[in-house]
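Dear colleague,

As promised, here are the two records you asked about, laid out in our usual form so they can be pasted straight into your sheet.

NAME FIELD: protein one
SEQUENCE, THEN STRUCTURE:
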Amino acid sequence: MRRIMGQLFLVGFCCACSGGEMTDSSGPACAPDTAQIDSMLAPLLRGDYDGFVGQLASCEGQPESYRHQMAMAYKQCFSKTPLSGFRVSRIEMPRDSVAEVFVLAETPQGREEILLRMVYTEGHGWQFR
């Protein structure tokens, strides 16, 4: 369980350090809904890592080689600890344009709650950070 948390933290840290432009514009008054989050996480269950990386705000404007490296990092992470399912447990909004999504991830080792941050960007709506 700690392995998946460590791997997701590492990938998230790489995203945060990437310098992708994320604007804290005046976001919506409501959080993203669970159906939207489910559809955004679905590529991970299908093994479509390129599709998932295409939704990350931190990958916008980055070269294709960078996005490919991110996809390979996710593939490597989930080949060691496969994701068999997930369920959004709660959503918190510390600011109007930022959402903290708590997801119960199901792996062969059991369930683990992970935190995914989302950001509201002009023209794109809610995206994973």
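NAME FIELD: protein two
SEQUENCE, THEN STRUCTURE:
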Amino acid sequence: MAAKQEKKAQPTETQTQSAPRKVASKNVALAASEKAGIVIGAWPGTEDLMKSVWGKMIPSGKLFRVITIQEGKSLQDELAELVAEESVADEFVYAAPNLIPCSKLSMEDLRMSLAYVFADGKTDFTTPLPGLYVKDALINLFASVQGKDDNEFLTAYAARFRSRPVAAGFTFGNIVTPVNRGDPCENRVIEAMLRKKFITANAVGFAAIASLVKKLIDE
């Protein structure tokens, strides 16, 4: 009677998320389960902190990547690189730097169609908020929309491939608070962490609130 073959232990959801990403050898395609469905942009030097806070807030078992983004890099260039990246899923959520989640998030939160609205009513799609992207749709748009700035490009993407966006703003709702100064009001930042879904920060603003982000992780 043939000996029974031992079954290899399958990775748990936690192991899947925390294990180092496998690098495929040449001519070997990555399985869908090995591709990141969430990609988080981070300013240089903030990668570890962003990985920790996102790892705490996203649904358990969701594979995600944190990538370094230099200030001034075009969002279109970054999206084009993600389209070409084998380790990124065909449908992926991307959050430009530095977007800080303030509470537990569902995939519905991350896939929601959002647009930042300024106090004067101007709509902006380049403010860092999570968004769902489909590689085939991006390729289609890259081919048909050229010479546009990032906001024009993302406005066109939203119009063609997303539902009507939910308005997000600093002065209304509970979605986002921007921190773009080196001396933000700490009480307002703490209030945002208690009430809002996200804080968005440029490199200067993030440096000013990094200690509060660490406390958010430790809670």
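A couple of things worth noting about protein two: The longest strand covers residues 88-95. DSSP finds eight helices and ten strands in the chain.

Best,
R.
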